[in-house]
Specification:
The structure is a single chain. A hairpin with a 2-residue loop joins strand 2 and strand 3. The protein is of the alpha+beta class and 127 residues long. The longest helix is centred in the C-terminal third of the chain and has 22 residues. A three-stranded antiparallel beta sheet has the order 1-3-2. Helix 3 crosses helix 5. The protein is built from six helices and three strands.
């Protein structure tokens, strides 16, 4: 019985591996350069919500993002510590009110993040 020449060839383990392809469009290292502070889902949601609203109260953000008090507090504090958002506390009568707004640094960080993501998407689709 003769062997067929059409049988698939086994890869030659001695052959040089194919070079890895980087991401084109100036985003070769984009995944590594993403702002990890914003990249987290809840923090991205907070920053995005504040980018399209002048300001939001704690309860408005909590309702909009469908999250818990603790979760929102933890993530908002991280963004506040990075100066991405500004937190203002006041009273409405006897009721405490916490309000957040996006800072200039936060808006710039969000724009950089979106540009990175757009570059990744563009270069991935070009292949």
């Amino acid at each position: 019985m003769a062997k067929s020449n059409l049988a698939p060839k086994k890869p030659d383990s001695r052959a040089a591996p194919e070079p890895l392809q980087g991401i084109r469009g100036g985003a070769a290292h984009a995944p590594l350069e993403l702002d990890r502070l914003i990249h987290e889902r809840m923090r991205l949601a907070i920053v995005s919500a504040l980018a399209v609203n002048h300001s939001l109260s704690f309860n408005e953000l909590k309702r909009l993002l469908e999250t818990t008090d603790g979760n929102l507090s933890v993530h908002a504090r991280k963004l506040e510590e990075a100066d991405y958002i500004v937190c203002t506390k006041s009273f409405e009568g006897r009721v405490p009110r916490t309000e957040y707004r996006l800072s200039a640094a936060g808006r710039k960080a969000l724009e950089r993040y979106l540009e990175h993501m757009e570059a990744l998407i563009r270069s991935t689709r070009e292949r």
